[in-house]
Amino acid sequence: MVEIAYYFHCASPHTYLGHNRICDVAERHKVSLRYKPVNAADIHDASWTAHAGALPTTQPAAQIAELKRLAALRGLTFHPSPKHRPVNSGLADRVIIGLVESEHDPRYFTGKVLAGAWAQDDAIADQAVLSSYLSQVGLDALPALVDAKTERAGSIRDSNTRDALAAGAVTVPAYVLNGEVFLGQDKIERLEDMLRSRR
């Protein structure tokens, strides 16, 4: 089966804006979406290097306005300045890794985390909040949270990060299809064009 490697972390508003779209594209074209959460700090560092300058500590007004426009176009609620800042998705990202390892589909849990962070002002670093999300999507919270705290989950996230950088995925979200990298949620249409052409 054709696979899309999906590099992301849930502390990114861009991941939130693109999540439903990339999931829908994968479903529409019957391809496998491989969830590969990465270390936010490492990918940010690489991104700064690639763009020859550090990102500002606060997003400029023009960027925030663009994010708001994109959210409105996609029918998504979006809070550019979430209540719980900085957004810490470390535990949530490791839960996603645990779900993948136990062969559970992480799509809807991931969606809950992203909406919690960027639309609902939830504290997504809180274990109780994540437990509630897991239960809401029909998953057993206790083993998922236990798996997330293992050394293996951290090792897999480190490996995902190395894979992302090796592939040229220097920002999130990034999607890799047949060795071609699509950087950012605004490239999903191009990725779908490639799927249509089956290049």
UniProtKB/TrEMBL annotation:
Family: Belongs to the GST superfamily. NadH family.
Species assigned in the record: Hoeflea olei
Any single biological process term in GO: glutathione metabolic process
Protein EC: 5.99.1.4
Pfam family, any one: DSBA
SUPFAM superfamilies referenced in this protein's UniProt entry, alphabetically: Thioredoxin-like (SSF52833)
Keywords of this entry: Isomerase
Keyword Zinc: no
Record-given protein name: 2-hydroxychromene-2-carboxylate isomerase
